[in-house]
Each structure stands twice: as structure tokens, then as C-alpha cells.
Amino acid sequence: MSTAEPHAPGGAVSSALRREVLEANLRIPQAGLATLTWGNVSAVDRVAGVFVIKPSGVPYDLLREEHLVVVALEDGRVVEGDLRPSTDTETHRSLYLAFPSIGGVTHTHSTHAVSFAQARRPVPVLGTTHADTFNGPIPVTADLTPEQCARDYEFNTGQVIVDLLGRDDRRAAEVPAALVSGHGPFTWGATATKSLEHAIICEAVAQMAIHSLALGAGTPPQHLLDRHYTRKHGPDAYYGNPVTG
To answer: Which element (helix H / strand E) includes 45?
Structure first.
């Protein structure tokens, strides 16, 4: 199942990782990505063999660091926390097991990205804003089968993403998002913070795509899209500056 062998769960999760997961979850409603409690962020500690995730159904304005749940990467057991973890926990675990580069995962029900998921359409690359982050369309999975829904539904939700990407870690890194058919977006990154940023960008480019398609937009030249992606990613990237202070 896994391309990365997790360590046996052990050792305390750092307070810094807990804070990052909390702050990323609190940013979901601030960014307009969630109604009620419809969203969650997690981060993995691969050395400890665990990940930290939002508890199920806790309103964001009540969420505190002590509410976060620590889950074993190997088998999904809750190893720390008094609350039930997010119902999407097994989807997060599925992605962590399949893709070693992933350090954080975000799931939301943001309006425009969900619209593409419900239409069972990928988000097309219609401009440089999309190409700055995603090296290609944001893909949409196949529908889950009755068998996949009946047993291990949440884990299988992750598996349809894994299958969509062909278990290709490089592909997952180049397009750090996918739409689960009829459901919504999952995004990921090297950290919880980056996964949340990718969710914000996913929603923004989905909204732009809906407006652009309504106006009859076509696909821009590939060389333009490639230029925008490579100036931010890869060995010749030159966008931005080192963080100081």
C-alpha cells in the first residue's frame, strides 16, 4: 500500500507542529473556504510515525490546540487526544502513505472547486495564475464504486486520488491538488501551511476558470504556462526572496 515505510508511533509531537496545524485550520474560514465546519487540515511527523488533524465537527471559533488529535500513520489508531478525529482522517492517511513528499493535507468544500468536482470536470489551465502553482489541470477522480463506498469509504476516497496520480510522487508535487468526483478538493504540500495555501489557490483558479469559460476562453500558449511554472518551481526558479527576520 505504502511507498514510504512509517516508523512505529512514538515520541511527542512538537508544539510547533501542533500550532501550525491549529493556525492552518483557523485560516480555512478566514479564507472563505468553509461553511460551518466543512474543512480540515493535518500535518505528518514521519519520524514519529503520526499525524495531527482537526477533530470532527468542532466549530473553528471554539477550536484550540488541545482539541487536535494525533493519529498513527501506520494503522489509523488515535494515539493522543480526547476527541474523535475528522471523518476525513483516513483520506489524509491514505495520501501520506502513498506520497512521501507530502507533509500536510487540506480538505475543504469551497464553492467553485466543489462545482468542478460535482460536474466531474478538471479545472483547466486557462491562464498564468493557475500555471504559477499547478503544472497542469487540477484533475478529477473517477467515481467511487459501490464497494468502495460500502467499506473503508474514507480511505478509498484517498485511494481514488492515489490511483488518479498513478502513485507518482513527482506528479503529486507538480499538481498538489485533486478533485474527488462529486465531493470536493483535497490539496497537499510540504507542510500544513503550504497545503492550505494550495487550497486557497485551488479555489481562486476554479472561480477564475468558471468566469473565463463563461466568456469563451481558450487555452493559452504552452510556452507561456511553462514559463510561469518554472520561474517559481525547479532548479531555475527565481521568484521571491529568502525570508528574513
So the answer is: strand 39-45
Catalytic residue among 75, 153, 226, 239: 239
Residue 174 lies in a domain: yes
pLDDT in tens, 48-106: 999 999 999 999 999 999 999 999 999 999 999 999 999 999 999 999 999 999 999 99
Query: Which pTM was predicted?
Result: 0.92
Cβ atoms 148, 84 nearer than 8 A: no
With a CB cutoff of 8 Å and minimum separation 6, the contacts of 177 are 134, 138, 185, 186, 187, 188, 198, 199, 202
Percentage of residues in the chain with pLDDT exceeding 90?
91
Residue 18 CB-density burial (10 A; 0-12 exposed, 13-18 middle, 19+ buried): middle
In a domain, 235, yes or no: no
Closest to 117 measured CA to CA, from 39, 210, 202, 183: 183
- Is 239 an annotated catalytic residue? yes
Q: Does the residue 96 lie in any domain?
A: yes
Residue listed under C-alpha cell 473503508: 152
Verify whether residue 229 is a known catalytic residue. Answer: no
**Residue 215 lies in domain:** 15-230
Number of domains in the chain: 1
Which of 60, 132, 152, 169 is labelled catalytic?
132
